[in-house]
Design brief:
By secondary structure, the chain is of the alpha/beta class. The protein is 36% helix and 11% strand.
């Protein structure tokens, strides 16, 4: 259906799609459907301001540490705070960076542990660190995703959709695959990588509009 639409058409409304399966990722990429989300200028601006004020012109690592219900339903894949810190320290040593941005839904205990154990300056997006306060939790999440997408290197959480969309956005922005595919392992002696379908074949067609 979409292939039959004239190139001058910019959007298509599909009603009643809830009972159909989504096409394969490669087919979605050919149609530009995974590249459809365009980031809000205000939220991008909040993330960019944080990046400029906290990291300056220096490179940084971003990490997404999924906790809360994952501690109960993903017991085979979710690492401890000590293991997360070990893997972040390995990545800091490997890259030579000394700054880490962490997006997490964890309470303060994990944040405190990582602040103490990570061998670099650790940042979270909150008002105490100079971040904005938003009226909706989704806005906060979007800003954190944008900061992670802009990072020089990223490590995410296994089986997390939040991580998946950061990885996809990084590829759409043209970030090298090897800087986006690593994920936090339960065992710090191993290296875990994201599934291959997380890697689009092309850079996002609309990302030039961001003027990064």
């Amino acid at each position: 259906m979409l292939k039959s639409v004239d190139d001058s058409v910019g959007s298509v409304l599909v009603k009643g799609y809830d009972y159909l399966l989504s096409p394969e990722s490669e087919e979605l990429d050919k149609l530009g459907l995974r590249d459809s989300m365009f980031w809000n200028k205000e939220l991008r601006g909040a993330g960019d301001d944080f990046i400029t004020s906290k990291f300056g012109a220096k490179p940084y690592i971003a990490a997404h540490c999924r906790r809360t219900d994952f501690l109960r339903v993903r017991t085979k894949t979710v690492p401890t705070a000590d293991t997360i810190a070990d893997q972040l320290n390995d990545l800091l040593k490997e890259t030579g960076y000394d700054q880490v941005f962490i997006a997490t839904d964890a309470p303060n205990d994990l944040r405190d542990d990582l602040q103490k154990q990570v061998k670099g300056t650790v940042f979270f997006y909150d008002t105490s660190s100079g971040g904005q306060s938003f009226d909706l939790p989704g806005k906060q999440a979007a800003v954190e995703m944008w900061i992670a997408a802009r990072a020089d290197n990223f490590i995410g959480s296994i089986e997390s959709r939040f991580t998946m969309w950061i990885q996809l956005e990084r590829h759409f922005l043209g970030k090298p695959k090897e800087t986006s595919e690593r994920e936090l392992c339960k065992d710090s002696e191993k290296k875990c990588s994201s599934p291959k379908h997380r890697v689009p074949k092309t850079v996002g067609r609309h990302r030039k509009a961001y003027q990064l």
